[in-house]
Amino acid sequence: MAFVIRTGKMFCAEHYDVVPDILCLGKAFGGGIMPASATVATEEVFSHWFENPFLHTTTFGGNPLACTAAIANINILIEEKLPERAAEVGDYLIQGLREAMKGHENIVLEIRGKGLLIGIEFVSDEVGYEVSKGFFDNGVLVAGTLINAKTIRIEPPLTIEKAQCDRVCEVFAKVLSEINNQLVKG
User: In this structure, how many other beta carbons lie within 10 angstroms of the beta carbon of residue 80?
Assistant: First the structure.
């Protein structure tokens, strides 16, 4: 659920006017406090279980503490308008990252994303790795994408402030300059 909310909507499918038959929620569903997950489906999908609800059972299903945490989390997301905030702050961060990459198009192929789920694609794994290392060395956490670093992810918390976004962009510009200087010398 965390990644989809980061896109600026409660569920990413909303960006594309898609109404899924089945929706699986996990990870941050319990607010980062309680391990909780849920499967939400249309009546048509779930109708096969109506006659015999014991076709699917679970050891921990309906845990009152986990359910309370999940409901509280959903209420906070809605009341504090965190998906909308992710869209607004994400646009701000993406624009800042694009400004920071100017003059470094030789090593950055693309900056893309929705809300606070952002990918930066580089010309090679090696460049992505060096940028990631530069981010880490300057106190900014980023993530790779599965088995390579050609594209790295920036996925900050929904509560990131614009001043923190500015810091990410400053570090990005600094690291890109350092890498380009190394390429010129190298």
Answer: 12
